[in-house]
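DATA SHEET
Item: assembly model
Revision: 1
Owner: S.N.
Input lines:
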Amino acid sequence: MENNVNLKSGEFLVKDVDANSIFIPEEFNEEQKMIAQTCRDFLETEIFPKLDDIDKGDRVLMKGILHKAGELGMLGIAVPEQYNGFGQDFITQMLVAETTGAGYSFSVAYMCHCGIGTMPIMYYGNEEQRQKYVSRLATGELIGSYCLTEPGAGSDANSGKTNAKLSEDGKHYILNGQKMWITNGGFADTQVVFAKVDNDRILSAFIVESNWPGVVIGPDEHKMGIKGSSTVQIYYNDVKVPVENMIGKRGEGFRIALSILHMGRMKLGANVIGAAKQTITDSVKYANERKQFNTHIANFGSIKHKLAQMAIRTYAHESAIYRVSKNVDNLLEQYKAEGCDYGHATIDAISHYAVEDAILKVNGSEMLDYIVDEGVQVHGGMGYSAEMNVERGYRDSRINRIFEGTNEINRLLVVESATKRAMKGEYDLFGPAEELYNSMESISDNTKAGESYFEEKLRYIKNFKKAIILTIYSTNKALGKNLMSEQEVVNNISDMIMDLYIGESLTLRVKKLEGLKGENPILKDIIDVFLYDAANNIRKHAKDAIYSSIEGESAEKLNKAIMILTHVKGVNTKDARRRIADKMIENNEYKF
Amino acid sequence: MKILVCISNVPDTTTKVKFTDGDTKLDTAGIQWVINPWDELSLTRALEIKDDASSGVKSVTVAHVGPVTAEPTIRKALAIGADSAIRVNAEPSDAYFVAAQLAEVVKQEQFDIIMCGIESSDYNGSMVGSMLAEMLNIPSISAVSNLKVENEKPIVTREIDGGKEVVSTSTPFVAIVQKGIAKEPRIAAMRGIMMARSKPIKLYEPVAVDALTSYKKFELPEARPACKFVDAENAKDLIALLQSETKLI
Ligand SMILES: Cc1cc2nc3c(=O)[nH]c(=O)nc-3n(C[C@H](O)[C@H](O)[C@H](O)COP(=O)(O)OP(=O)(O)OC[C@H]3O[C@@H](n4cnc5c(N)ncnc54)[C@H](O)[C@@H]3O)c2cc1C
């Protein structure tokens, strides 16, 4: 049994983890809960009463709200004290991201400012840049933005054309180009702009102040959702950027951009939990009020199924979020102990967990889209009315699958990062996979007589791991270097890995919690349904991957092995889901 | 000048109330505890007064009668901005008991203005404030909707039937406040939360008090009967219902 804190990114694919070694959200301390409460109180007083006004897209209003958040210290949570922040650990940052995630457009403006708008300077900037900018971004005196995307450079971010030429006197870079989809752009004071110096192939990063001559801010885009968040194009016409405003070294920009996206993905993964819980509670309340056929709609099986499924996905995803947050905190401390400064230690620790952050980004955004969609459905016609918050939530959720790297890109990253790390020797994936492949005919599901509840569930998870590494190994063997360009197969593998990581985190959380607080049968229902579904999903994806890349007898042999490794006991999912839904119906909210 | 704000620790107002031990005790399982809303507003007003240098108020202390499990609520009051806290280490059994403990605290520490919520949202007894003043033999002013302090001189506004009454009083006194006392409860700022770590919570052991009351039984209100909707076109149906079911006509 491994201690979770020692796991390298992706290593969960081959290691069994001790439940007691993972961090679970039931372990937040008093101070962390108080910080979350402050964020919640802020939403209740500053955001929820103004949602309609905020969605009119008034730049002054949103900037004012960010300033108020700054007065409460909410903009400095991830910033160290010497730059006017509060230097909170990563777990607390993620809890804040979760809580503010219920804030619709505000959530996007807030996360953009605190994350991609501030952190490139915090993590990669020098002391003068941090003093000059970070210490004012942390209080809200300045509002930040992040300018990577261009009309011709979206997913392929390094292909941007924005150019920076060193002036003859060597004092300035002359910036020319165009950026697109810039969040907070309409009112931000600072921009982290990525551009190529001279004829460089790789980006560099600069701090640009919005009021410098030559910076032209376009009008706000008309968007499907998050209408209160400003999104603009920005043009740079011979903008003189002092050389001291380059962040990091020349050519380091692309690495900075990617690292910051790792952070953004993790935080997005936490963000969606807040929105999910809010939507579930709204839906439960509505189901408890609305009557049709002389009974509350909460009494209908179809509605219970939706409510339960929303809760299962949220609870499971949340388990994974806080599990990996602790990994980041631990690695960060280790890097610091090795002499790394706070900024680099933090961003290197976050970027290390590349497999996990891509999983959490994809799973979280698709989970929320599912939840808001079913949330609308629970509300029936009222769900389609702009009077209800679920309607806003439905539109606002959709962006999460697009920004911080599209889900297509992130699915590729899950598999690419996991296999790359294994190939680099960070952990051994191909060794055990080859062994498994060679002994395929003797594979068994390792059922043991008299195994306990958790022994059985953790055995399933162990088998899922085997199914996954077997699929990775066999498709790799068949496709070689071409695997990454067979994206459909990569997506299959990626989805298997996601279900595994989320399911394992869920099971470990409930096991640990049972040890701490005693048994809670509803949580076991959540595990039962999740793993039963996961087994079927993993089986289906493995088969798709195998039959799409391997032919003949080998494929059949592999299929047989997959069938054994994804075998789980039957579950009365209908009754389990009803119990989960009934618990929420009784509480009139999402609460476990 | 020193203000004391008495705070009680109550279930979050959205709690679904349940009882145990043959309906003699609140079932505390899963309850989230918060500062009594009236007390939170009192604290907010006390801090506003202190923020205004011309008031002459130098410190705001909170006092709570309750076991150690209430410390998160006290810590929250410190995070919101109270300078210090006092906890009397005892289960708050009834209003008389609580008032007697608070009276002891005031005698020891000497405060000029003592603020109590007009009621607490758990048992809604509305007694502690006046009992406390009586025990200390000092003035009490009830239904306070506004409190100002100018150069250490309190000016108190109270709600009366159909109007307002503005009074001045000697100190010390007990202000029994109602909700208009502050607009919105103050949100704990990050700095406050960080500072709350190192602010003192002074511990008092309870003084002996006779137990005058005990709980016999709690009852939940009867579930409200379902609402019947009558189509606006069908006045006849409405009349029939009023006759047959409500016997109103
Ligand atoms: C509201 C909003 C706010 C934003 N905020 C910011 C911001 O603050 N700063 C910033 O820099 N950017 C921001 N963006 C930009 C955002 O990050 C990009 O839109 C995103 O990266 C996708 O790029 P694209 O729009 O050019 O889509 P494209 O890259 O053109 O993608 C189109 C489709 O092709 C798929 N695709 C592309 N490449 C591949 C591939 N290799 N394999 C498989 N599929 C592929 C995509 O997944 C997608 O489905 C924002 C966008 C929006 C809509």
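QC remark: Residues A 112, 146-149, 154-155, 181-183, 223, 231, 399, 402-403, 406, 408-409, 487 surround flavin-adenine dinucleotide (CB under 6 Å).
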